[in-house]
# Entry
Amino acid sequence: MGSVLVLYDSKTGNTAKMAGYVAQGAGEIPETQVRLLSVDEASADDIFWCDGMAVGSPTYVGVLSWKMKRFWDEVVPKVWGKTDGKIACAFSSSGGWGGGAELTCLSLHIMLMNFGFLVFGIPDYTGEAFTLHYGAVVAREPRREEEIAACRRLGKRLAQWVAVYVDGRREHRPGPIKQR
Amino acid sequence: MGSVLVLYDSKTGNTAKMAGYVAQGAGEIPETQVRLLSVDEASADDIFWCDGMAVGSPTYVGVLSWKMKRFWDEVVPKVWGKTDGKIACAFSSSGGWGGGAELTCLSLHIMLMNFGFLVFGIPDYTGEAFTLHYGAVVAREPRREEEIAACRRLGKRLAQWVAVYVDGRREHRPGPIKQR
Amino acid sequence: MGSVLVLYDSKTGNTAKMAGYVAQGAGEIPETQVRLLSVDEASADDIFWCDGMAVGSPTYVGVLSWKMKRFWDEVVPKVWGKTDGKIACAFSSSGGWGGGAELTCLSLHIMLMNFGFLVFGIPDYTGEAFTLHYGAVVAREPRREEEIAACRRLGKRLAQWVAVYVDGRREHRPGPIKQR
Amino acid sequence: MGSVLVLYDSKTGNTAKMAGYVAQGAGEIPETQVRLLSVDEASADDIFWCDGMAVGSPTYVGVLSWKMKRFWDEVVPKVWGKTDGKIACAFSSSGGWGGGAELTCLSLHIMLMNFGFLVFGIPDYTGEAFTLHYGAVVAREPRREEEIAACRRLGKRLAQWVAVYVDGRREHRPGPIKQR
# Structure
């Protein structure tokens, strides 16, 4: 049974809302255990526990927030070198389009790769001219249908890769992508 | 008199349209010469000529287009090591929001930094929840007011930094930023 | 039986040498088919064929070479949307330490993520103060023992992830990491 | 008279040593005031004070340290929108070559660009196959001649750009670059 951790930091509540949708999406794949935790609640044990994780941070000057960074910096001595091969992805809410949400996801990917995690984005479009190639990104609150769908798709795809690759349940492999 | 090069590659015409607006913006600062050139028209001489440049590429799988890359790879032997200190910025049109336009600007910045150029983004918001912190970005065609304004703002700011820093015309220094 | 593609561009031969070592490393895992191809020899079929791929480019002003970019830009219409879920990693030879090899690997990762590939780096150290957290990187020719070991480790780990995740051969899971 | 801030975080002392050399380099340009401050000592006033800044962080899982990030996250409300146009660069010490020092400099650049700073790297080589295209990078302690020279070169170039662009002292413009 696959296990998915959705880990987030949030200041205004926007990234927390995204996290909720990501967790919902992960729950769409049967036989998937999902933990939704803020960075204040999580510990090294949660990283050991999960097969895959989605990590979300508000876009703070184009890079993950210091609280999310502190969590990982401090957890390094406990988990680093013992957890490679997990599957990971990213999401972020920024103050505006063009404000660095993609780059914040990139900073999360770079950090997660250092632990040996396999990181991924999603080719799918969830609306007209709206996608999540480098993780789910939103300006401010996730409100529009395609934004919420992007968060859910991220969690679902994470759970799918966990099902396919970790659990060997090939029937959960996603089909070809439709571009819009 | 400051000189600004707007250099772009475009396949569908969207990045070309952005380039046109960027050039317009640069023209808003008096005593600024502006050249607007596609990557097929430009040569090493244009790089030597300019004090500042805005470089635009379509978002092709999250990185600048091969044609724009080829231009710079091939111009390296002629200009590299002789042009550092120029001021540069980036813009990109992608197939969708979340599709890698910020990352394409990043790839342009990384490339331009290698030449010793000083690269910049813009804190200003040009609309509600719309900014150009890492260069002007648009999904598909620049159509909405804030998108066109972002392109113009990029060109204008480039011309301002050229006026202030290269020409020493301090009166063109931009004022404090308003966030929206 | 896992299939690994080692795809590279090389101008001076240095990245080609890295590619050879990467392919050797992939061959260390039993029941792994390995194709070693330059970007001039490869086609869309090779991407469809492989389960995992290592992509190498010389560091050209901090971003992958235009020839490597052209390959992917041109292959997009054929493979994009049909190949997500493959596992991928990167390597690069630069003109000097601090010259952008990590960033070139990053540009490769960003490009590969766009296709929906799962990208990874390697926590392991292959020598004193020498690692490949973001892919194998070398200044000029791979010559020192730890540099060659890094290339081989990259290929081996790629073949391991393919064995573990695609083929379900869990016995090939790499053990805990030793830091030096 | 130009003012240069060298701001650093350091855990093991290695990045602090780099910072010392960077400050030395800045001091090589006449009529330059230099402040060397750890992130625990600095405040918003130091950012307002300086014309240019070099920001250094240890490489912590490929991204700037949480303490350096906290400094900037917390200073945002005071300085953001009032300090664009300053000139900035980056440096980092990592645990090993290939370990993410370039990427950590990139995270610093991305953060600094958000404030509207003009960021730069340096084409110069300071030794055989050793450069600082994206800021000064070192594995562990800066010990070899070219590593120390890279740190000094970074500070010197920062002071040069401040002299040339902010103070209008054109005679400090660096000459053409020699590649090694």
Remarks:
- Chain B has one domain: 2-172.
- Residues 2-172 of chain B form a domain with the Rossmann fold fold (CATH 3.40.50.360).
- Chain B touches chain D through 33 residues (CB under 8 Å).
- The two ends of chain B are 33 Å apart (CA to CA).
